[in-house]
Write a structure and sequence with these properties.
Largest sheet of chain B: 7 strands, mixed
Strand content of chain B: over 45%
Distance between the termini of chain B: 40 Å
Strand content of chain A: over 45%
Number of helices of chain B: 0
Helix content of chain B: under 10%
Number of helices of chain A: 0
Radius of gyration of chain B: 13 Å
Largest interface: A-B, 24 and 22 residues
Oligomer: heterodimer
Order of helices and strands of chain B: EEEEEEEEEEE
Largest sheet of chain A: 6 strands, mixed
Chain lengths: 113, 117
């Protein structure tokens, strides 16, 4: 099962918005509503930021939003802040005839200029 | 408050078997309708799903690791474990345990396992 495709890096200035894409296939992103996004600061465990493409867990800033178009999911961060500088990963659920499988994207490093 | 904690040896030699345990507090592995999984992250690289255990006991593994991986549960101690056989340097990584449903909503802090002769 191939990993989901993310850009290696994105950057943006404080106060501006950025979008990170996550491209899969018809077997994962397009078929299931289970794409999630994670933020990881150096030395820390990943933190769930978005699930089911668009939902935010309690406590996550509404500056973070998710969307989907066909085989591509996207994470948008508006009003960039220095604390948003981190690695971001998407993940999706998929299934074969006998297995339930989860795949992660390769990760995107966000730099706040 | 859900808490997951990984434990196990931090240093292995090539060909040995990696064994890690995830101790869960604040939820019951056998009673909640969640998956309990293992994810790893090689130094400087991305996340890789290793496998997961459903509360009913069913397991799912990453096809690329399936021949070497076993995930098991000890309900009496509310723990689940990872076994990875025949390790090589490529298995050097931070290993995380997590609860997921299917999104991974709670993670342990991670434990570094180094494979070196």
């Amino acid at each position: 099962q191939s990993a989901l495709t993310q850009p290696a890096s994105v950057s943006g200035s404080p106060g501006h918005s950025i979008t990170i894409s996550c491209t899969g296939t018809s077997s994962d992103i397009d078929d299931y509503n289970y794409v999630s996004w994670y933020q990881q600061h150096p030395g820390n465990a990943p933190k769930l930021m978005i699930y089911h493409f668009t939902n935010r867990p309690s406590g996550v800033s509404n500056r973070f939003s998710g969307s989907k178009s066909g085989n591509t999911a996207s994470l948008t961060i508006s009003g960039l802040q220095a604390e948003d500088e981190a690695d971001y990963y998407c993940a999706s659920y998929t299934t074969t005839s006998t297995l339930n499988i989860w795949v992660f994207g390769g990760g995107t490093k966000l730099t706040v200029l | 408050q859900l808490h997951l904690q990984e434990s196990g040896p931090g240093l292995l030699k090539p060909s040995e078997t990696l064994s890690l345990t995830c101790t869960v507090s604040g939820d019951s592995i056998s009673k909640s309708t969640y998956y309990w999984g293992w994810i790893r992250q090689p130094p400087g690289r991305g996340l890789e799903w290793i496998g997961s255990l459903y509360y009913s006991g069913n397991t799912n593994y990453n096809p690329s690791l399936k021949s070497r991986v076993t995930i098991s549960v000890d309900t009496s101690h509310n723990e689940f474990s990872l076994t990875l056989s025949s390790v090589t340097a490529a298995d050097t990584a931070v290993y995380y345990c997590a609860r997921h449903a299917p999104e991974f909503d709670s993670w342990g802090q991670g434990t570094l396992v180094t494979v070196s002769a």
